[in-house]
Design a protein that fits this description.
heterodimer, A: mainly beta, seven-stranded mixed sheet, four-stranded antiparallel sheet, B: mainly beta, five-stranded antiparallel sheet, globular
Chain lengths: 114, 112
C-alpha cells in the first residue's frame, strides 16, 4: 500500500464550487505539505503543517484553506474554485531530520475548474 | 530573480552519454539541496540530496555542490531511455523549517 495517498485522483468542478482534496499518510511523519504544480512549472507551496496544532501559509495560500484533522490527515479546500486553480496538486510528508530531512510525495490530484 | 533557477530544456542526450543538469540558487543561507525526478503526470521521487561542498555519488548519479558559486548540479552517467523525465532541483534554507523551494525543472530526453 502507498505510504501517502490522495483522494480524489482526478476531479472536474465548476467555478464557484467548494472542493476538498484529502491526503492521508501511514509513514508516521509529523510534517505535511500541500503543493500545486502548473504545466511546465515547478512546485509551489500552498500550506504546510509541522504538527496537528501548527498550520502555516506557503507562497500561494490565497484562495485555499487547510485542516489538519490528525497526524496522518491533511486536507486542502478551495472555498470557491476558479479556473486558474486548475493544476496538479501534491501532498507531501517529512519527518524532522535536520539537513537530511526528505519530503515524500503522494500520487497527486489533477483538478480541472471549468 | 527566481530563488531557484534551472534551464527548462529539453536536454537531449544520446543513450549511454552523460547528462549534466545545473541549478542555481539565490539565498546564501541555503543548507540542503535535493534532486527529484518526475515522470510526466507522476509525483516527484527523490534521487539524492547533498549538503556539503563537493561531489556525492549514488549509482549512476552524481550531485555536485558549490556553495561559493551558489550552484548545484546533477550528472547522470550512462544515460538510459528510462532516465527521460523532468528533474527538479529543490533547496532548503536553514531555519526555514524545511520548506523546500523548487526550481522549474529540466526536461531530459535520452534518445536510443
Amino acid at each position: 500500500d502507498a505510504d501517502v495517498t490522495q483522494t480524489p485522483r482526478n476531479r472536474i468542478t465548476k467555478t464557484g464550487k467548494r472542493i476538498m482534496l484529502e491526503c492521508s499518510q501511514t509513514k508516521g511523519h509529523d510534517r505535511m505539505y500541500w503543493y500545486r504544480q502548473d504545466p511546465g512549472l515547478g512546485l509551489q507551496l500552498i500550506y504546510y503543517s509541522f504538527d496537528v496544532k501548527d498550520i502555516n501559509k506557503g507562497e500561494i495560500s490565497d484562495g485555499y484553506s487547510v485542516s489538519r484533522q490528525a497526524q496522518a490527515k491533511f486536507s486542502l479546500s478551495l472555498e470557491s474554485a476558479i479556473p486558474n486553480q486548475t493544476a496538479l496538486y501534491f501532498c507531501a510528508t517529512s519527518d524532522a531530520g535536520g539537513r537530511q530531512e526528505t519530503q515524500y510525495f503522494g500520487p497527486g490530484t489533477r483538478l480541472l475548474v471549468l | 530573480q527566481k530563488e531557484v533557477e534551472q534551464n527548462s530544456g529539453p536536454l537531449s542526450v544520446p543513450e549511454g552519454a552523460i547528462a549534466s543538469l545545473n541549478c542555481t540558487y539565490s539565498d546564501r543561507g541555503s543548507q540542503s539541496f535535493f534532486w527529484y525526478r518526475q515522470y510526466s503526470g507522476k509525483s516527484p521521487e527523490l534521487i539524492m540530496f547533498i549538503y556539503s561542498n563537493g561531489d556525492k555519488e549514488d549509482g549512476r548519479f552524481t550531485a555536485q555542490l558549490n556553495k561559493a558559486s551558489q550552484y548545484v548540479s546533477l550528472l547522470i552517467r550512462d544515460s538510459q531511455p528510462s532516465d527521460s523525465a523532468t528533474y527538479l532541483c529543490a533547496v532548503n534554507v536553514h531555519g526555514a523549517g524545511n520548506k523546500l523551494t523548487f526550481g522549474g525543472g529540466t526536461r531530459v530526453l535520452v534518445k536510443p
